[in-house]
Amino acid sequence: MYHRHEYDPETGHDRLTTLSREEFPVLSEMVDELAEMFSQAT
Predict the structure, then answer these.
(1) How far apart are the first and last CA of the chain?
(2) How many domains does the chain contain in total?
């Protein structure tokens, strides 16, 4: 089983989400998500 940590900047809490192998993102999806996070921060 896989999991991901998602930080909520509004509350300051970390949320743990369990993922199946099929739900686990591929590297390109992770990079896209990071790019989106950084574009929102600037």
Answers:
(1) 34
(2) 1
Six-digit token pair at 27?
């590297």
Chain center to CA of 29: 10
Mean pLDDT of 7-20: 91
The rounded distance, in Å, linking the Cα atoms of 16 and 8 is 11
pTM reported for the whole predicted model: 0.64
- Domain coverage including residue 8: 2-41
Identify the sign of the CA torsion 4, 10, 12, 13: negative
Phi-psi category of 36—alpha, beta or left, where left has phi over 0 and alpha has psi -120 to 50? Answer: alpha
Query: With DSSP H G I counted as helix, E B as strand and the rest as coil, what are the percentages for the chain, rounded to 5?
Result: 35, 35, 30
